[in-house]
Amino acid sequence: MEGFISGNDGEIKGLKDLKASLGDVDDFLNNNNAPSSSHDDDSKSPETTPPSAPLPPAAATTTTTTTSSASASSSDLSYFKAPTFIPDLISPAVSFRSLCRSSTHTGPTNGKCPGFLQCNLVVLRKEDAFDFLLFCQRNSKSCPIVDVCENGSFNPTGITKSSDLRTDLPAYNVYSNGKLVQGNLSDVRSLWPTDGVAFLLGCSFTFDHVLIANRISARHIEMKRNVSMYRTNLKCREAGRFKGNVVVTMRPVKGGDVAKVVTLSCKYPEAHGAPIHIGSPEDLGITDLSKPDWGDPVEVREGEVPVFHACGVTSQEVIMSSGVSFAITHSPGCMFVSDKIID
Amino acid sequence: MEGFISGNDGEIKGLKDLKASLGDVDDFLNNNNAPSSSHDDDSKSPETTPPSAPLPPAAATTTTTTTSSASASSSDLSYFKAPTFIPDLISPAVSFRSLCRSSTHTGPTNGKCPGFLQCNLVVLRKEDAFDFLLFCQRNSKSCPIVDVCENGSFNPTGITKSSDLRTDLPAYNVYSNGKLVQGNLSDVRSLWPTDGVAFLLGCSFTFDHVLIANRISARHIEMKRNVSMYRTNLKCREAGRFKGNVVVTMRPVKGGDVAKVVTLSCKYPEAHGAPIHIGSPEDLGITDLSKPDWGDPVEVREGEVPVFHACGVTSQEVIMSSGVSFAITHSPGCMFVSDKIID
Question: Compositionally biased, Low complexity: which spans (chains A, B) (predicted)?
Answer without folding.
Answer: 58-73
